[in-house]
Amino acid sequence: MRRISTWTLLVAAVLNAAALATAQDGGPAATAAEPTYRLIDFAAIDRSIKKLPTFLSSEQRYGLLLFGRNGETRMWAVMDRSDPKRAPFDVLYLDLDADGDLTEAGERFQGDTTSVGRVNFLIPILVDPATKAEHTEVSINWRPKSDRLPEGTRFKIRWRGGKITMGPYGPYSKCYQPFATTPQDAPVFVPGFDRPFQFQHWMCDKLQRGNATEFKVFVGNRGSRPGSFFCVNDRFLGTKDSPEATLICTDLDGKPLRYHVKLTSRC
What is the pLDDT of residue 33? Predict the structure, then answer.
């Protein structure tokens, strides 16, 4: 967390990720001679699914994960109910080989339902369909709607068997994106750290001119909409390393300003 004086802000602040290394735990790193990263055009993503299983319930939940340096490899995750009369979505179909066929052997998982109606799916090893790297300790958790929170789905992955990537997150807890009822409306997630990182602000107070504001951020990858951000945890970098950010804004006269800061506090 970093306190930033906002007295010069006029309308909004834009955070640009500095050159955080993406070679952590063996991930690929872009160099000046290798400008291969590009922004993902989420609106252009193909949302077709080649083959679906025969579902048991009348409604499902759909989410889409992107793998690869530029998100070129699609992996669908679809949840169903094992008993149409029961509420939990306790069956997961995961397109492990990213070929669009969710009827193949080994791609159906039965979750464990807790006493409060949550469902946990555990996948010991997930072979990355884009890089063939092995990700371990993959957990997917479905949460029913409650008085306090909406329905939601959470991921946690030990990327390349090393450090943690998890999500989805957003500016506020109530906007964390759940799976959708159709493929066309499904949120798109970008797990891992094979791409240059971006920032997502989190639970921040309103920016007030003349006052210091605590501006908290996640570090990771943006998804297709607010609430679909995948982040790394606070132990991703060593204790002596800190991400850096540039705050871009204008003063009251319209003069452009830039503030370069190190994000030294963690929470």
Answer: 55
Q: How far is CA 166 from the centre of its chain?
A: 6
Beta carbons within 8 Å of 45's beta carbon, 6+ residues apart: 64, 66, 71, 74, 188, 224
Is-contact 201 171, C-beta < 8 A? yes
Q: How many degrees, rounded to 5, is the angle at CA 185 between CA 178 and CA 48?
A: 120
Q: Could you say which residues of the chain have pLDDT below 50? A: 1-32
Strands (E), the chain: 2-5, 14-17, 61-67, 73-80, 91-94, 108-110, 112-113, 119-127, 134-143, 152-158, 164-169, 188-189, 198-201, 212-215, 217-221, 229-232, 244-250, 256-262
- The pLDDT, as a whole number, for residue 8 is 27
Taking a C-beta distance cutoff of 8 angstroms, is the pair 101, 227 a contact? Answer: no
Total count of residues recorded for the chain: 267
Q: Which two tokens stand for residue 188?
A: 């798109």
Spatial distance between the Cα atoms of 45 and 66, rounded to a whole number of angstroms: 10
Let me know: does 217 contact 245? Beta carbons within 8 Å: yes
pLDDT at 108 (0 to 100):
97
Task: Enter the DSSP assignment of 253.
Answer: T
Fill in the amino acid letter for 115.
S
**Considering the entire predicted model, what is its pTM?**
0.81
- For residue 34, the model assigns a pLDDT of 58
The 10s digit of each residue's pLDDT in 29-62 is 444 455 588 899 999 999 999 999 999 999 999 9
Phi, psi of 262 (to 5 degrees): -100, 135
Q: Yes or no: say if 109 and 91 are a contact pair by the CB < 8 Å rule.
A: yes
